[in-house]
Amino acid sequence: MIASQDLLSRLDIIQNNACRVVLCKNRYTNAQSMLSELKLPHLYARRRFHLACTMYKTINGHIKSVEFGLLFELIDETRDRITRANTSGNLVITRYRTSFGAKCIQVYGPMCWNELPLVLKLAKSLGIFRTTYMNQYPI
After folding, report:
1. 49 DSSP assignment
2. How many CA atoms lie within 13 A of 44 on its CB side?
3. Residue 74 needs a FRET pair 20 to 30 A away by CA distance; which of 19, 82, 120, 130 works?
4. What sign for the dihedral angle of Cα 118, 124, 126, 131?
């Protein structure tokens, strides 16, 4: 997820230009209408979906997080008292000092995970997680 806004915006421009070539549209055509006509998701939505899937796989043991250096803690493992936060399946967000650190998966991953509804966090399998995500956040 570590990429500068400049690189991400360039990638969006390349996708929009490719849509224009495929649909034979001029340069003034709205990008969102072209994406919907081709039934393509916006790149930001795709990145969020893949990050959420990676977080689900890591938390549920489908990916060995130690191999990638991804160590995430649930809030209930770090607190002694029972609160609403530790019953919702939220993760502890690692502190960061720079904007580069904010884009790191150890920070951005738990932020993305904590924004998800509890229904998604408690999904029994990856397939159920994906279909529920697609229903709640259509890409």
Report:
1. H
2. 7
3. 130
4. negative
- At 29-75, the pLDDT tens digits run 998 899 889 988 888 888 889 888 988 888 887 776 555 555 666 55
Q: How far apart are CA 78 and CA 74, in angstroms?
A: 7
pLDDT band at 97 (very low <50, low <70, confident <90, very high): confident
Task: Give the count of beta carbons closer than 10 Å to the beta carbon of residue 119.
Answer: 13
Between CA 56 and CA 132 the distance in angstroms is 13
The domains of the chain are located at 1-40, 41-136
If you search the block for the tokens 């209408």, which residue do you land on? 33
The whole-model pTM stands at: 0.72
